[in-house]
What does this fold into?
Amino acid sequence: MDKGTSYTYQSAGVDIDAGEALVDNIKPLAASTKRPGADADLGGFGGLFDLKAAGFNDPILVAATDGVGTKLKVALDAGQHSTVGIDLVAMCVNDLVVQGAEPLFFLDYMATGELDVDQMTSVVAGIAEGCRQSGSALIGGETAEMPGMYKGKDYDLAGFSVGAAERGTMIDGSTVETGDVLIGLKSSGIHSNGYSLVRRIIEDKGYDYSAPAPFDNNQTLGEALLTPTRIYVKSCMALVKGGFVKAFSHITGGGFLENVPRVLPKDTVAQIDSSAWDLMPIYSWLQNEGNIETREMARTFNCGIGMVVVVSKDNVDAALATLKAHGEEAVIIGDVTRGDGKPKCKVTGKAGTWGASTNWTAITE
It folds into this structure.
């Protein structure tokens, strides 16, 4: 009996051949991330890592997972996919290093409605670059073609990073005390948080990603917004190994007001002076275009500081010298004072800073 059309996986929207072609393309990219403990070969059902070969004796494993958020919509609309992979790695490994853990290996998950081999190869090339910057081995991942779940060539990313620290060496902020100094490490831009607000402003104001950036004629708006998240691993690990740091805070969603208190003990307040650094042009433009209040800026964006380091007064000079030697732009942005109850962050600014017409204060609620 004739049963009619013979269905195939490809007719349902899943191209197995494209998936195999992508694996062939990304094998050399993964191989470029080899490090002690991992040969970074792809093709097995799981990735392997040898902690002993990596030089650890009594390690504690630390894991982190994250994505890139709606920054991916900017990449799709601008047709630029080469840097979001760096963002993916950065959002994970920067969360590892704040605990004093050295990133060891990384795995990615990519889901799309229609697998575009060139597009996804570009994304993985960025992931491999992020792994090289952070010293991580790309030991595996998964690509899922899911027609009906995602529209066309839209895609989403998730990353998984594992690091390690020798037992007794982890950074947890427990030794932070009043009088300690806050050092800010400058960001490369918006990094990977706040893009739902950014995109809303751009859409409402009718800006074009392919047009010159209103705040920088040397690049398009899309290129400016897709500047990849800075990876702070090597500089921060140098501080850890030097014994100079008491705590780190990775400034992501929630800005200063939500992230800095996470690494402080109770009865302390992180006092940040926003006039210690210039607000980046991209932030000044966004604040003006969106009429964003200063407190909203401080609890949404990194505002030009992607990592906050807490050190004792005695270690300030050594920490700054170490950071400079590792290519960071670092500036003293405040100190730790006595509080009452749960830890808080207080950001103050003078008239004319962050678009404010008067002196202002923003504090964790």
